[in-house]
Amino acid sequence: MINKIAVIGAGTMGHGIAQVAAMAEYHVALYDIQQDFVDRGLESIRKNLAKGVEKGKVAPEVMDTSINRITGTTDLAAAAHQAQLVIEAIPERLELKTDLFGKLEELCDEGCIFGSNTSSLSIAKIAASTKRPDKFIGMHFFNPVHIMKLLEIVVAPETSDATLAAIKEVGSKLGKDCIVVKDFPGFATSRLGVCLGLEAIRMVEQGVASAEDIDKAMTLGYAHPMGPLKLTDLVGLDVRLNIADYLHNELGSEVFNAPQLMRQMVEEGKLGKKSGQGFYKWD
Fold first, then answer.
1. CATH of 4-182, one of 3.30.465.10, 3.40.50.10170, 3.40.50.720, 3.40.718.10
2. Is the omega angle on the peptide bond into residue 144 within 30 degrees of 0, that is, cis?
3. What is the pLDDT of residues 55-76, one digit of tens each?
4. At residue 183, what are phi and psi to the nearest 5 degrees?
5. How far apart are CA 257 and CA 201, in angstroms?
6. What is the pLDDT of residues 177-200, one digit of tens each?
7. CA distance 30 to 18
């Protein structure tokens, strides 16, 4: 039975995962490499929960008990201690993830399940850094984690049925609707989402229409909750460029050959919401 979840990385995705896990009554260790990163993540959780209370969506006692279930730490061994599930939410670089799980292999109990929040990287390649490929699985959450309902579960060839069943149960307890996909570059969501986003950027590049009108075409014409360009701003142009380059290399499809406009914007620091400027201006 899973009682303690260690979340590695206290950034946007990590603190969101920690929040929903604590609200689902799991004990959570939230780890990052610097104390100010941990503090920032914990403060974001407090603000999210306080906003929920203000809107009447979260009971005050749920906010208090959820916060009390989360322990922030910069000690990886302490985070891993007695955890039955580790969820990694660190930057999208294969060498960082394999290095992390190589360390966790030595720190975690034999039965601990390893989950990666990667949005496109090979689960099998990350799992190869451990001695438990049968207990390794992809757990791709969506931002903001406490609002978005989807959990994309990614199974590699060696992922066991027992591991998949355990993670489906966790996903359900977290209030997520789960889909199961095979370990293929981009999975289902990133492959389709990045493809749409790149084509929208090409349309801006070609002067087909403004970013606002391209987005409106998809929100009003196809009932998408958000246009592909605004979504790219939220995800981060640098993040999506990395995914596009990875998919282009892995799949060999020109669909994923990133437009020059995208590369130029990243070089200029126009990364979207986090930099204040992307296809839109952000406060």
1. 3.40.50.720
2. yes
3. 999 999 999 999 999 999 999 9
4. -75, 85
5. 11
6. 999 999 999 999 999 999 999 999
7. 7
